[in-house]
Amino acid sequence: MLARSLFRPVRDRNIFEATVERLAQGIRLGLVPTGNRLPPERELAEALAVSRVTLREAIKALRQAGMVDSRRGRTGGTFVIYDAGDQPAPDEGAEQVARRMGAALDEALDFRRVVEPGTAALAASRPLMAGDRQALRVALVECTGATDDASRRMADSRLHLTIAGAAGCQPLATAVAEGQIRLDELLRAIPVIRRNIAHSDAQHAAVVDAILAGDPERSRRHMEEHVDATAALLRGFLG
Q1: How far apart are CA 129 and CA 111, in angstroms?
Q2: Which helix (H) or strand (E) segment is 79 a member of?
Q3: Containing domain of residue 132, as a range?
Q4: Which of 56, 82, 108 corresponds to the end of one domain?
Q5: Residues 111 and 28 grouped into a single domain
Q6: Which has the closest alpha carbon to 226: 206, 203, 205, 209?
Q7: What is the per-residue pLDDT for 218?
Q8: Residue 89 domain-assigned (yes or no)
Q9: How distant, in Å, are the alpha carbons of 36, 187, 222, 235 from that of 107?
Q10: Among 63, 141, 195, 212, which is most exposed with the fewest C-beta within 10 angstroms?
Q11: What pLDDT, on a 0 to 100 scale, did the predictor assign at position 29?
């Protein structure tokens, strides 16, 4: 479910470019963490509904961009080598991003406020398998234990995507993934505030605890508080 939120059929006339974009987005959001292997070529081509030739060309482009590395042999495959901490700072500042986005800024934040609390509530209402529960705990630990700002952003996105995966609804998982893509650009344009990080960690823990306890209303409430806090911060710097 989690991988399918981004690795889904490409519906675009520019199939090659859209395939590169879809794969790069998944990598930047930490859907496949650094050091991990992408799904097998046949599986990935089927998920994206593209030919294996197109997929290979897209992977080649990512390899040239320094995001993946392909290895041969029985333990080979295509591995993510992208390190967010090595990436240059955004070319645009907060004001430039806000100006370029215009009304899309409020739309992105409003969209997230509707989608993510409902997704968390749905996850809490599901009879979660042991693997789902463990994935939530691991994603939370990775987020709170991130050692730098860039890896923190990736782990944060991965936690939200893991919650969406636990909800067991593909359209919702896709919507959360698309919201995270837009949010990533916004967050990279504002300064990192330590007090906010600590507050966010506490909110993340409250959401995960409520989901694991099977409490939909508490899950919804804590996620609403979390997305509202993020929105207030972004509007403060970008609005």
Answers
A1: 29
A2: strand 77-80
A3: 94-238
A4: 82
A5: no
A6: 203
A7: 98
A8: no
A9: 34, 15, 21, 12
A10: 195
A11: 79
